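Step 1: inspect the first sequence and its tokens.
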Amino acid sequence: MLFVLTADSNDRARIYYLGVIYMKRSLKLWQISGFIFTGIAGVLLHFLYDLTRGSVIVAPFSAVNESIWEHMKLLFFSMFIFALIEYKYIGKDYENFLCAKLAGILTGLLLIPVLFYTYTGMLGVTADWFNILIFFIASGVSYYLETLLLKNGTMLCKTPQLAFVLLCLIALLFVVFTFVQPEIPLFMDMSTGNYGI
């Protein structure tokens, strides 16, 4: 914790907690914290289903297999949870906050399959370390885009409520498709060739 002792014109000492003040005002610090949170939460959610011995309660929010869809789910819920936390502290300071978050999350969700299918299509093999790197690249690009959109205020957001509803619908899709998965490559477990739980 960082404390500074200052004196006002009446020579009375005051203590200001600068960490909270700086964090509240620093979009860049929030976004870096979001990237770190997403990385840690993504790793935890990746293993949570197995650690809970296949708990149906954690299945909607954690990876139930090694499909691309489940890795997209890890990114989504990690970023969505952080966006809700971030909104409480700085979201109201930005008119386009929810639209920027929607754009960032959608970008990350798109990048995961694009990068995965591009590199596996070119090399013909998959590497676990590269799949992990893809998650962090998608997360980093997402937070960078959000930061640009929020900082510059270039994205017009006429209906932030619609952006929030769309994020909730995406969350619902991830929950539904955890239990009922179409048999297409996006949903196929790369390690077993199976679908779903």
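Step 2: inspect the second sequence and its tokens, then contrast the two.
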Amino acid sequence: MVRARAIPKRIAIALTAAAAVLYAGLVVVRVLYPIGYVDLVRASADAEGLDAATLCSLIRAESRFHPDAVSPRGAIGLMQIMPETGAWIAERMGVPGFDARRLLDPETSIRFGAWYLRFLLDRFGKLDVALMAYHAGPTRVQGWLASGEVPFSGTRAYVERVLHAIPIYRTALRWPIIVRITPSIPL
């Protein structure tokens, strides 16, 4: 019979310390890049032919996954949709009896936001331009494109923030254990 040898104490301590540092790093990432409603995000992304990580990144930029978020300008919910835009989306999607309060419902917000992002992608053809339109409005972006004007610095920063977070969300969605073993700490 072969006996297993015990790991030397200093190696065990080093492995424990490395695991603690790795876990602390994962917790920091979860604070900086919150995630939630994964099943709803995946379903809406699939329905619209979108990348789920892109939707997660968009939700992070819009509301940090707070379903009851309301902006100073009146945008509502996870995807921060303006009530007028929500009514227009509902009409285009054939959703009867739209009420802006429905945008506070995560399922409705994600579904409408995914549909709208797909609409903007189809209209503008490029993700960065579609994100500019999501943030600043399609009419304004159309004007920027026609005149060669540079978008607002806030819009440029918004697009960079969304694009930067996509690979991080791809990793989180590819390795769901990361989400399960680390706490969600809302800011």
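Step 3: confirm your contrast with the notes below.
Residues 133 and 139 are 8 Å apart (CA to CA). The chain has nine helices and no strands.
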